[in-house]
Amino acid sequence: MFIAMNRFRVAQGAEAEFETMWKSRDSHLHTVPGFVEFALLKGPQREDHTLYASHTVWASRADFEAWTRSEAFRMAHRGAGGTKPLYLGPPEFEGFEAVQVLTKAAG
Question: ABM domain spans which residues (predicted)?
């Protein structure tokens, strides 16, 4: 399992617009081999920004890397940066290989 995360420092007052942008975009992830799950996470609020993270779970690092080279990736990111800046600085990418995964037992 591979987890890909991007952290965004969203400017104060731009949170609703940032969330709407993410919720309304067509990510094309459901068409990509190895995609497992996506979540947009809202974190702590600071003096000048609110922290958000996009959190994507992949079957493997290779699946994630293949997605970044795919037409689905280009379609999901077209127009990125074309609107007014909603966040401070560029997103910060973090990639993680799973070392241990625990899940709740069915039942």
Answer: 2-96
Q: Which residues contact 26 (CB under 8 A, 6 or more apart)?
A: 75, 76
- CA 46 to each of CA 51, 53, 57, 76: distance values in angstroms, whole numbers, following the listed order: 8, 15, 27, 29
DSSP string, the chain: -EEEEEEEEEETT-HHHHHHHHHHS---GGGSTTEEEEEEEEEEE-SSEEEEEEEEEES-HHHHHHHHTSHHHHHHHTTTT-S---BSS--EEEEEE-S----PPP-
3 bridge partner residues: 57, 96
pTM: 0.84
Domains of the chain: 2-89 (3.30.70.100)
